[in-house]
Design goal:
about 300 residues; alpha/beta; Spore Coat Polysaccharide Biosynthesis Protein SpsA, Chain A; 2 domains; eight-stranded mixed sheet; elongated; glycosyltransferase activity; Nucleotide-diphossugar_trans
């Protein structure tokens, strides 16, 4: 079957995005109708507390292509994506955020690359609008992640992507709960390419993805795809051990030749505080890995679906 005649699923994780839902729906329909393919749009409502559900219901009444998946509580951004992917029926799946910062019109370029034979086509946020601190922080993070990761992590790649069904089937086999989808996507391999675009600032609404959520996602990316923090602890520990040995030898030689003890209560306190800080930092890094193991071994479901609504 030609890819032109196959079905595209669009997964939209959404939390308190009432002000963006209708505009996003209109733009998605416009680009999908332009592509002239069979399609479905899956909105994943992550237990929104605003009037999102009533807006979704109104859209479903007038559009048989739309399905609403409501989770029993807020399971987080990555789990909302997983819920949408697991319930998609298309031959390829597009993931796009519900805040309209990623342009739906780029899906047409994704689709063309898929027709050319690429299995994964992801968006590259080459430029960002909005808060300067956030823009710089993202740039730094992606470069650190690429440096420390044990896989080839594409720079500035976003969750906004088109994924072929055969890649999705492999992605669904990966069991981890602390998910970093763009990292898992890169880990799977297959034929991939990226398309650069400018990430817009919010048109409406307030971001629910705060600094804490960004830090957690960053930790998931680093601790899921890098052993560098553990290697760093080993290196720091070994360095301190060598310095300590040299200090002991130097102190002994000074006592033998000078015949007196070096005074220095303050220096002793500083050294103890320094070593204590290193130990606490090391324990916290190890704790990040242990915490992820703890989450995995419980084997709880990644998410719970409260209801699925679609037009009969």
């Amino acid at each position: 079957m030609s890819k032109m005649n196959q079905k595209i699923s669009v997964v939209v994780p959404s939390y308190n995005e009432a002000e963006n839902i209708q505009n996003l729906h209109k733009r998605l329909k416009k680009v999908l109708n332009k592509i002239k393919c069979s399609y479905e749009i899956l909105f994943v409502n992550n237990a929104s507390s605003d009037n999102s559900i009533s807006i979704f219901r109104q859209i479903i009444l007038n559009d048989p292509h739309v399905t609403l998946i409501t989770l029993s509580r807020n399971f987080g951004y990555q789990m909302a994506i997983s819920a949408g992917l697991d319930n998609s029926k298309g031959d390829a799946v597009v993931v796009i955020d519900g805040d309209l910062q990623d342009p739906p019109e780029l899906i047409e370029k994704f689709f063309k690359k898929w027709i050319e034979g690429y299995d994964v086509v992801y968006g590259i946020r080459s430029k960002r609008k909005g808060n300067l601190f956030r823009r710089i922080s993202y740039k730094i993070f992606y470069r650190i992640l690429k440096k420390v990761s044990y896989i080839d992590m594409p720079l500035d790649a976003s969750e906004f992507a088109l994924i072929d069904k055969k890649v999705l089937q492999e992605l669904q086999k990966l069991p981890e709960r602390n998910r970093f989808t763009r990292g898992l996507r890169a880990w799977l391999g297959f034929k991939q390419t990226g398309i650069e675009y400018t990430r817009d600032d919010r048109i409406a609404g307030t971001s629910q993805f705060n600094l804490g959520a960004n830090i957690k996602l960053g930790f998931d990316g680093i601790f899921s795809f890098s052993e560098a923090p553990l290697h760093l602890i080993t290196l720091v520990g070994f360095t301190i051990f060598i310095v300590s040995i040299l200090g002991i030898v130097g102190y002994g030689l000074y006592y033998l030749f000078a015949g007196r003890v070096v005074p220095g209560f303050l220096s002793t306190v500083i050294i103890l505080l320094f070593l204590g800080g290193i130990q606490l930092l090391s324990i916290s890094v190890i704790g990040q890995y242990i915490g992820r193991i703890f989450e995995e071994v419980k084997c709880r479901p990644k998410y719970i679906i409260q209801e699925i609504i679609r037009k009969s």
